[in-house]
Automatic annotation (TrEMBL):
InterPro entries: AAA+_ATPase (IPR003593), ABC_transporter-like_ATP-bd (IPR003439), ABC_transpr_FbpC (IPR015853), ABC_transpr_MalK/UgpC-like (IPR047641), Mo/tungstate-bd_C_term_dom (IPR008995), NA-bd_OB-fold (IPR012340), OB_MalK-like (IPR040582), P-loop_NTPase (IPR027417). This is Glycerol transport system ATP-binding protein. It holds the Pfam family OB_MalK. It comes from Roseivivax halotolerans. Keywords: ATP-binding, Cell membrane, Membrane, Nucleotide-binding, Transport.
Length: 363
């Protein structure tokens, strides 16, 4: 297990980068604590796999350092870093049995035979392949082979970190849930430092202690699922986390009041902005439907009942926004306005969250 420090880290795939836009991974300075489980979450091309490959040693950064427990490992080979990595697509030895595949990294470390048997049996049970341990990997399905890859990553108990690069892509949905549960249990039992790359918010939020949200090569927020939901530090976080994601409204901000079109919105606190593009972010759960009176003009486009709640799709000034209602709550028949719950309003300038006056924005 190791504390992982990213010190002035950045990477460009170009030989002579001339500006920030040339960097696939923009400058990072972060400490990832020993024994915590992190998820790197973001859309395709945001830099999460680049960062994972730098941590593992498969890629050398253009600038900066990687430290494990304060030791600079930037120039160390992958094998010297004592990490285990599981990739998106299965990497197995077809001519070996499942048992031999799982035992392979342990034999390379010259572990005692009885300890190898114990660990292989344990991991075989965890991945649901006890009955297939003596079967050749050749001919197994893609998801079975990926379970072997996962097992081989999990079989070592002495690693500095376990790295997972979208490992459940080829796994069927039910098994995804089972394997995520097993990974959580592994983390709870052994306290490995784990980093899990995914573009799936459900995987990230159910797996990790802390979620690292990346956008355009930059880490825009690190936080617990609750922090990401309640206080998105960037409009992308609000949009990407949640289903549906956060609604964003262009707004003029003046102290404790905002104006959206002709409607005036009371804010829960006073805000100071610096003249950039200002917006309000409001999750669907905090939008209220109204008939007449104050509020922002809105028109219901359609209603989608998804079981636990209803999603109300509305037109607001030519843009589609979303509200939700608990199952069993009727939709007001004459809805022509929306209002916001004050506690659900976040203020943004140039896409970054603005803290109320007198408060410091969390890192």
């Amino acid at each position: 297990m190791a504390k992982i420090t990213l010190d002035n880290l950045a990477h460009s795939y170009l030989p002579n980068p001339s500006g920030e836009d040339d960097y696939a991974l923009k400058e990072l300075n972060h400490d990832w604590q020993d024994g915590e489980a992190y998820a790197l979450l973001g859309s395709s091309g945001c830099g999460k796999s680049t960062l994972l490959n730098i941590i593992s040693g498969l890629l050398h950064p253009s600038q900066g350092r990687i430290l494990f427990d304060g030791q600079d490992v930037t120039h160390q080979a992958t094998a010297e870093r004592n990490i285990a990595q599981v990739f998106q697509f299965p990497v197995v030895y077809d001519t070996m049995t499942v048992r031999e595949n799982l035992a392979f990294p342990l034999k390379n470390r010259r572990m005692p035979a009885d300890e190898i048997r114990r660990l292989v049996q344990k991991v075989g049970h965890m991945i649901g392949m006890e009955a297939q341990l003596d079967r050749k990997a050749r001919g197994l399905t893609a998801d079975a082979k990926q379970k072997i890859s996962l097992g081989r990553g999990m079989v070592r108990e002495d690693v500095n970190a376990l790295l997972f690069d979208e490992p459940l892509t080829v796994i069927d949905p039910h098994m995804k849930w089972e394997l995520r549960t097993q990974l959580k249990k592994l983390h709870h039992d052994f306290g490995h430092t784990m980093i899990y790359v995914t573009h799936d918010q459900t995987e990230a939020l159910t797996f990790a202690d802390k979620v690292v949200v990346m956008y355009d090569g930059r880490v825009v927020q690190i936080g617990t699922p609750q922090e990401l939901f309640e206080r998105p530090a960037h409009t992308f976080v609000g949009y990407f986390i949640g289903s549906p994601g956060m609604n964003v409204f262009d707004a003029e901000i003046s102290g404790s009041e905002a104006r959206i079109g002709e409607a005036r919105i009371a804010l829960p606190a006073s805000y100071a902005t610096a003249g950039g593009k200002t917006q309000l972010g409001v999750r669907p759960e905090f939008i209220r439907l109204a008939e007449g009176g104050d509020g922002i003009p809105a028109k219901i486009l359609r209603i989608e009942d998804v079981g636990r709640h209803k999603i109300i799709r509305l037109d607001v000034a030519g843009r589609e926004i979303n509200a939700t209602l608990p199952e069993g709550t009727p939709v007001p028949a004459g809805t022509d306005r929306i209002t916001f719950d004050p506690e659900g309003i976040n203020v943004y300038e140039n896409d970054w969250r603005v803290a109320p006056k007198g408060q410091r924005e969390a890192a």
